[in-house]
């Protein structure tokens, strides 16, 4: 008789956003007349910019002719896109990343969930608390996280790094030594960003204790301050300890188009017993994994990604991000002015809000849905330290953002 991977059964409840969607659907069914404003899930709302649309159309036309048709993409992705990323995301920022160290993918969610596969089953992970749930859940599925305590929301074999108001939502070095460290800045859900010297501290630490940092840079396009790094490779020594995840979802609105990349420098190596304790490049393992389990992002989508780096594409994307940041500023100033404790929103599309009084995150979710018809995301869904917090996103339209903030202020 077949058996299930019972690690899946250890996962508590449903995925956070499915839970929210169910609650909102039930409320809407009961109150069909209410106009609900969704500032919950981190999905974009602006259409793809003209430069991207033009590139998509042109690539679709290429697919219609035998001479320009494209089948399977190369394993690592098309060179035109990897070159554009190496040039614009890295060289232009003084980072040494070669095009062949960039693996094109269908987005940062799958890469952040799958990257753990190339590490030993006994690896200890360290995560920020609160955290983007995918990092933890993918390790639960792989059987790496121990047992779950429903009362505390804590896995016995995960090192949690609390990000609280006391440390300005920036994690401190853990007391126990991890093998894999997941970091995401600008952060989802807190909206916090770290300065270069803070990130350098992590790079130095990882090199010292022989850990790998999995650095999620999905929100780098939202950075507005000068001294905040856009890539971990801006830090000295990152090539020997860091993997970086990139996404086209939040900077260019590709959430429904799907495009991302994982960067693994050739200098990132590990001594392997099965290789006579000689160094093995992590790049080699991910290349093997990519080749075996993935057949590449579509040609037309990779052409669309390339268009993000044209002068027109860059200008249009900058304007879109600017629009979202106008929303973030409105939420931050509006709720801050009304006496709520709010942070984030300056280098990130997320505003992290303290729930009023002693309300739990879910109590505030229900209260806001019922009284203001506004949907946000309960902070506790991202980890125990997210309790008594609430995440609002700047991805709505300006009109909806203004209406939502006004409704919350009027409560
Ligand atoms: N990483 C973080 C931190 C995110 O918040 C998200 C989406 O919300 C993703 C990755 C997913 O990115 P993608 O759409 O590229 O899969």
Describe this structure in words.
It contains 13 helices and 17 strands. It has 411 residues and is α/β, with parallel strands linked by helices. The protein has two domains: 6-47 and 312-410, Aspartate Aminotransferase, domain 1; 54-310, 3-Layer(aba) Sandwich (Aspartate Aminotransferase, domain 2). Helix 5 packs across helix 6 and helix 11 (311-337) runs parallel beside helix 13. The termini are far apart. The mean pLDDT is 96. Pyridoxal-5'-phosphate is lined by residues 42, 107-109, 112, 132, 184, 188, 216, 218, 247, 249, 255, 260. Residues 42, 107-109, 112, 132, 184, 188, 216, 218, 247, 249, 255, 260 line the site of pyridoxal-5'-phosphate.
Give keywords.
4-stranded antiparallel beta sheet, 7-stranded mixed beta sheet, binds pyridoxal-5'-phosphate, 17 strands, 2 domains, globular, alpha/beta, Aspartate Aminotransferase, domain 1, Aspartate Aminotransferase, domain 2, 411 residues, 37% helix
Radius of gyration: 21 Å
Task: Estimate the strand proportion.
Answer: 15-25%
Helix content: 25-40%
CATH topology of the largest domain: Aspartate Aminotransferase, domain 2
Task: Give the ligands present.
Answer: pyridoxal-5'-phosphate
What is the count of helical runs?
13
The shape, in one word, is globular
């Amino acid at each position: 008789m077949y058996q299930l991977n019972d690690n899946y059964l250890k996962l508590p409840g449903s995925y956070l956003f499915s839970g929210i969607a169910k609650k909102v659907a039930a409320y809407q069914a009961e109150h069909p007349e209410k106009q609900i404003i969704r500032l919950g899930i981190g999905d974009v709302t602006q259409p793809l910019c003209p430069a991207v649309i033009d590139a998509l159309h042109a690539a679709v036309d290429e697919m219609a002719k035998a001479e320009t048709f494209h089948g399977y993409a190369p394993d690592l992705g098309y060179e035109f896109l990897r070159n554009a990323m190496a040039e614009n995301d890295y060289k232009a920022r003084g980072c040494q990343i070669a095009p062949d160290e960039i693996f094109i993918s269908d987005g940062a969610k799958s890469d952040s969930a799958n990257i753990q596969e190339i590490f030993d089953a006994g690896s200890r992970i360290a995560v920020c608390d609160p955290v983007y749930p995918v990092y933890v859940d993918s390790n639960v599925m792989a059987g790496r996280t121990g047992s779950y305590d429903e009362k505390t929301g804590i896995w016995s074999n995960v090192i949690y790094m609390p990000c609280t108001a006391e440390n300005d939502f920036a994690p401190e070095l853990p007391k126990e030594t991890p093998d894999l460290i997941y970091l995401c800045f600008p952060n989802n859900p807190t909206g916090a960003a770290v300065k270069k010297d803070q990130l350098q501290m992590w790079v130095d630490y990882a090199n010292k204790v022989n850990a790998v940092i999995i650095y999620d840079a999905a929100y780098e396009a939202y950075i507005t301050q000068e001294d905040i790094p856009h890539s971990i490779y801006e830090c000295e020594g990152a090539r020997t300890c860091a993997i970086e995840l990139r996404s086209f979802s939040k900077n260019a609105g590709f959430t429904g188009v799907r495009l991302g990349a994982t960067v693994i420098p050739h200098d990132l190596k590990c001594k392997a017993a099965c290789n006579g304790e000689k160094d093995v490049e992590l790049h080699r393992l991910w290349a093997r994994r990519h080749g075996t389990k993935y057949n590449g992002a579509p040609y037309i989508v990779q052409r669309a990604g390339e268009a993000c780096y044209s002068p027109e594409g860059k200008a249009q994307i900058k304007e879109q991000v600017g629009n979202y940041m106008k929303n973030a500023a409105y939420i931050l100033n509006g709720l801050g002015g009304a006496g709520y404790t709010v942070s984030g929103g300056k280098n990130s599309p997320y505003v992290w809000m303290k729930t009023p009084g002693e309300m739990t995150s879910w109590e505030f979710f229900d209260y806001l849905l019922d009284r203001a018809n506004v949907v946000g995301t309960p902070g506790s869904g991202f980890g125990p330290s997210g309790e008594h917090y609430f995440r609002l996103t700047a991805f709505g339209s300006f009109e909806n953002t203004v209406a939502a903030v006004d409704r919350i202020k009027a409560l």
